[in-house]
Design brief:
alpha/beta, 2 domains, two-stranded antiparallel ribbon, about 25% strand, globular
């Protein structure tokens, strides 16, 4: 197995739940304290050993490309102002990884698997890669992406992805997995249910946006028919692979999963990350105790 060096970040959505804030900027560029959401994803991938970051975007998202590019005028201004630390931070951003940008195709079914069509020409036929939803964030000492990569390299499945248990009243918001019985790896799944009521869900283990895909996944994208709401989701591809007897691992991860998919979740995530910051966490906690 060749070393995994590429990560695909899906960042082609319209962020309609954040309008008008996302009218002229991608949702992935909304800040969590002092860095946009997508910056945290890139850092997680890089810490996991990824070298190439492929961002799948749509028209009007040049802010993403500009962010990971050099900004000579700003660098000169910071240098003249003697703000060496800020200058170092800004210069480091383009050096985080090798950035590649592709536009999401308009002629494919919508859904969270749609970006996979656009990256087929730049993923080698025998190459495995990381796939990340652009609005899911994680907190963990050992990067969640690295945890899943380690499982993938050990098990050699068709795909491996992260799951965490959610509250029963929240099950209907997520896709949940059905684990196989009497298997060597207890986290191998036999199927996947997309956003069903808790009484109908196979488990409370919910999928979030961290995956490692083998070439079999891209091959399946081409032939899998859209599922719920005429969208092609990762769940549809997994179910198709499971029916063919392929091994797929839904790995519980060590750490915390935080979503930014709606304004309330975004605010909760912002507070959580701020509370973890050494310089502002204590003061923010004191403020919240005083005013809530």
């Amino acid at each position: 197995m060749t070393k995994i060096t590429k990560a695909v970040i899906a960042a082609a959505g319209y962020g309609t739940r954040f309008l008008p804030a996302t009218k002229n900027q991608p949702k992935e560029m909304l800040p969590i304290i002092d860095k946009p959401i997508v910056h945290y994803l890139v850092e997680e991938a890089v810490k996991s050993g990824i070298k190439d970051i492929i961002l799948v975007t749509r028209a009007g998202q040049t802010a993403l490309e500009d962010y990971f590019d050099s900004h000579i005028e700003l660098e000169q201004k910071l240098e003249k102002s003697g703000k060496a630390k800020r200058l170092e931070e800004i210069k480091r951003i383009p050096k985080l990884a090798n950035f590649i940008y592709v536009r999401q195709r308009a002629d494919v079914p919508p859904g969270n698997a749609a970006p996979l069509f656009s990256v087929m020409p730049i993923i080698n036929p025998d190459e495995s890669f990381v796939y990340m939803f652009g609005d899911d964030m994680t907190l963990s000492e050992n990067p969640v992406t690295k945890q899943i990569m380690d499982v993938y390299e050990k098990e050699r499945p068709a795909a491996a992805f992260g799951v965490q248990e959610v509250k029963e009243e929240e099950v209907h918001k997520y896709g949940t997995v059905r684990y196989k019985e009497n298997t060597k790896n207890k986290y191998e799944i036999e199927g996947f249910s997309e956003k069903v009521p808790a009484k109908d869900a196979p488990s409370k283990m919910a999928l979030f946006g961290r995956f490692v895909f083998s070439p079999k996944v891209l091959n399946e994208v081409i032939t899998t028919l859209p599922g719920k709401d005429d969208e092609l989701g990762v769940a549809d591809i997994f179910n198709a692979l499971c029916k063919k007897g392929e091994k797929i691992i839904a790995q519980p991860v060590k750490g915390e999963w935080h979503t930014t998919g709606d304004p309330l979740s975004y605010l909760k995530t912002s507070f959580k990350f701020a509370l973890e910051r050494e310089k502002i966490g204590k003061e923010l906690k004191d403020y919240l105790r005083k005013h809530i």
